[in-house]
Design a protein that fits this description.
GO terms for molecular function: calcium channel activity; intracellularly phosphatidylinositol-3,5-bisphosphate-gated monatomic cation channel activity; ligand-gated sodium channel activity; voltage-gated channel activity. By secondary structure, the protein is mostly helical. Helix content is about 70%, strand content about 0%. The protein is globular, with a radius of gyration of 32 Å.
Length: about 700
Amino acid sequence: GTGADNDLHINQAIVFIEDAIQYRSINHRVDSKSLWLYRWYYSRTCQWILSLTITIILALVFIEKPSSLTITSDVRFRLPAWNPPCGLTESIELLCFLVFMLDVSVKSYLIGWEEFWKNKWLMAYILTLIVSLTDWIVSLSLFCAEDVRIRRILRPFFLLQNSSMMKKTLKSINSTLPEMASVVLLLAVHLSLFTMFAMLLFARTKDGQQEKEWVRYFRNLPDSLTSLLVLLTTANNPDVMIPAYSKNRAYSIFFILFTVLGNLFLMNLLTAIIYNQFRGYLLKSVQSSLFRRRLGIRAAFEVLSSLKETPADAQQSYVSVGALLRVLQKVEMDSRCKQAIMRSLKTCSCDQLSAAQFQKLFEELDRDAIKQHPPSPEYQSHFMQKMQIAFGHPYFGYLGNVVALANIISICVVLVMDADKQPSERDDFFLGAINCFFILYYMLEMLLKILAMGLKRYLSYPSNRFDGLLTVILLVLEIATFSVYGFPHPGWRPEFMGLLSLWDMVRLVNMLIVFRFLRIIPNMKFMALVVTTLLDLVKNLRAFAGILVVVFYTFAITGIMLFKGAVVPLGNTRLQFFIFLFLFQTFFYIKKVEVCYFKEKCDFMALFGHFQAEVIYCLLYLLPINLICRWAKIYFVAWWLISSVIWVNLFVALLLENFIHKWDRRCHREPLSDIEYQRTVELMFRDVLEEPTEEELMEKLHQHPHLQLCR
């Protein structure tokens, strides 16, 4: 009937608008039951359950054999870790697989079978589940005694496929690879040429000093290539040139030329290419997101214009304001945007909205989120008004910064004076007394600011919340210290009492005071710009962090499977997860240690110049030397290429883009003290995005596999 059709169109419009808000595709089923299932699937509860399931299956690696549940990470001293019985983690895995099977089934049904066969991610999702379940069955049939578990390597895929932004980022990286490959190839040519020069230059001779260079670094082609590859990371600089330099200073020219060409030119050229290409591909990705948003809004307009209550017009379609209000009441969207759209509708004098007016209403979704601070209280008393002016003035905040700086300096002085003293020789009277004075000032400052600004306005500033929270914690700690140890007095060195000793409590207070000094950041505009850039990266570029987690996780699991049993510490045959996370970053210190296996005499001062080298040195005595020197190099070089060469440069590119964007906005917009602008990744490129034309939108809508338009 007419009423049922109207309800269907209303529900379709609700879903299309929610798709536009979340940048989702509208190519899904649009019948009544499918719309209910669609909204249920994308509800906060279902998405929270799915995210929790992904977290659980990724976290299983910490308790699976080899378990990481030990207090100490030192392989020499830790007790045997608890390993779960066979079937415990497998049962949890099965529950997670059931959730994923339900997830992929719902997704496949909602988009329809025709779209399903076009969706490569869903096909990969199903293939991953099939392989994981097969491996799970094999594991149980072998009573969990198998050495290789393929499904553990596949687990990061569940995280990857659940994030549309991560998939877009991965697609952008894939598109950038051809340009990156050209520079990587140039780096390979650079390495190969200098490797040949090095083998000719440092060939084996009767000269003992030059032979040291040959033995340690350029004995053969693999060793020569590895030495120069490590030099490209500067990890073995200047160790690699010391034997040759000791003989003749002119040999340093070779290493200087290699470092300048490789590090200063080629590596920075790679960063520039990645920045240029990746920014372009990310811009295309954000452009497609904008198209999805405009398409969702236009689809909502088209279905609402089909309502029976809307007067028909052969020339142009319209949507009634009443129908849109009904839709907005049920749409899940940000309250700020919803209120702004409703205000615009109430002030609109017309009863019907055209497509252009309808689209313009929802441009509120694209605008900066503006947070306006509440007004200060209005006091009637003349004295209170003067107090408000005095303690609400910026100079009062500057005074607080000066006092905080004085507190930091006093702590530094005491730490320098007590650096060489034993705990029993320290007198904590002076430090305790000055901390008490400063904490009382911080408390008074906070109360006076609340008096001047009002509690709501005070709490509306993040810097004030940070300052106030630390001040309250410091006050509680100070009261706890006095209640246990009494007030400071000369010779204030009581014995250990309670949960923490006096020295521990004083150190904790001092650390919080030092941390509190970060309150000066908002007062320094350039520093504030840098900090807000970093915070925006944390908030808006979670997709990059997610892919980094995927890379770390995959390499860590692969490392455990490849090198299991290679490390045999005293009384412990398990190779822990943390070793490989550490080895990832420290591999290129290995070359400093390998000489101990080839040469009886070793420069131990150079060898132990880095903490990482010490740890690698200990591990090398436990690892088969053939494994470390040959096949393990492929594993770690692959890690270096992906994490350092590619991913770090991608992060630098996005950091530069975010910083330049904020710098440009800072130069072209006057600062407003009471307004905070919050930007998203999409809004970063808002000024350069192109609006889709009506013809493009209508053409795409007519290609919808499940929606039949009247016109």
